[in-house]
Amino acid sequence: MNDPRASRQVGDGRAGLCASCTHLQIVRSARGSEFVLCRLSFSDPRFPKYPPQPVLECAGYQRVADPDEV
Ligand code: SF4
Predict the structure, then answer these.
(1) Using one digit for the tens of pLDDT, what is the confidence trace for 12-35?
(2) What is the average per-residue pLDDT within 33-48?
(3) Which of 14, 15, 34, 62 maximizes the CB count within 10 A of its CB?
């Protein structure tokens, strides 16, 4: 499975809060472009499917669990 945190957009900080959010999914086009998809958009219309980046504030933000903290 693809690790969304290995994407270029996430790695260089352009994705803002999304980079560390559990709802993040990276979508890759056939040409290699990457897009930040918010999976919360599937169940809550307040959140855009492709949020403009960088997201600096978000009511749906949920920090992904750090395996070192569990
Ligand atoms: S809930 Fe907010 S921070 Fe999380 S992926 Fe969606 S837009 Fe980004």
Answers:
(1) 767 799 999 999 999 999 999 999
(2) 96
(3) 15
DSSP 21: B
pTM assigned to the model: 0.81
Provide residues with CB under 6 Å of ligand 1.
17-18, 21, 23-24, 38, 40, 47, 51, 55, 58, 60-61
Strand segments (E) across the chain: 24-28, 34-38
Phi first, then psi, for residue 19 (nearest 5°) are -60, -30
Q: Rounded to an integer, what distance in angstroms lies between the CA atom of residue 27 and that of residue 12?
A: 16
**Rounded CA separation 55/38 (Å):** 11
